[in-house]
Amino acid sequence: MESHGDEGEPSAMAKPPKKLPMSRKGFGTRGQSIQLLTNHFRVSVRRMDGHFYHYHVEVKYEDGGPVEAKGVCRRVVDKLQETYASELAGREFAYDGEKGLFTAGALLQTKHQFVVVMEDASSSGRTTTRRSPGGDDGSPGGSDRKRMKRPMAVKKFMVEISFAAKVPMSAIAEVLRGQETENSMEALRVLDITLRQHSAKQ
User: Is residue 11 part of a domain?
Assistant: First the structure.
């Protein structure tokens, strides 16, 4: 594993341009009014004085080719978190399966490079059969078969995690109050990824 940088947070960051919410001119006046039932759940966030840290993730095969399958990327990042827990300060991840990873605190460095070794599940469990000498001549050993499991194949993946931005937790509370800010969309993304990942692991 290689790490670069002296701090988990860069000293200077470019601020995104401010966006003003679009004002609504009014409500619909034509057609039939109906009521809709949606799967809406109330969400509350206790801590509002901290930040979410957004990191950019690159997952590659050993030959440098990019890994594009979300399922593979998720398994690799899960294995990374398990293998390098101390190097990552024990941080829990919210990962979207592609390029985005969020933590509730900064990692130890602004840039990390890891090698993750995974067992290739596609080759596991395969067996071959081997007949004993005298296979088909009616001898006692003819019906004996030995099941031989092939050795598990392993694959190496290269993972690079680099700091991208900070998202104030207070932006989530503002969104829940219906107030749009420059961090609203990113805050909603963090919340969505976190809830999806939590639900998937239940």
Answer: no
Query: Domain range for residue 55?
Result: 48-120+153-168
Sign of CA dihedral 8, 11, 17, 20: positive
Q: How many CA atoms lie within 13 A of 27 on its CB side?
A: 3
pLDDT attached to residue 125 = 43
Q: List, for the chain, all residue ranges whose pLDDT scores fall below the cut of 50.
A: 121-129, 139-140, 142-144
Q: Which of 58, 44, 50 is nearest to 167 (CA)?
A: 50
Amino acid at 50: G
Half-sphere exposure (Cβ direction) of 127: Cα atoms closer than 13 Å: 7
How do strand 94-95 and strand 154-168 relate by DSSP bridges?
Answer: unpaired
d(CA 141, CA 132): 6
**124-169: per-residue pLDDT in tens?**
444 444 555 555 555 445 444 555 555 668 899 999 999 999 988 8
Q: What is the pLDDT of residue 123?
A: 44
pLDDT of residue 133: 54
Number of domains in the chain: 1
**Exposed/middle/buried for 190, CB within 10 Å: 0-12, 13-18, 19+?**
buried
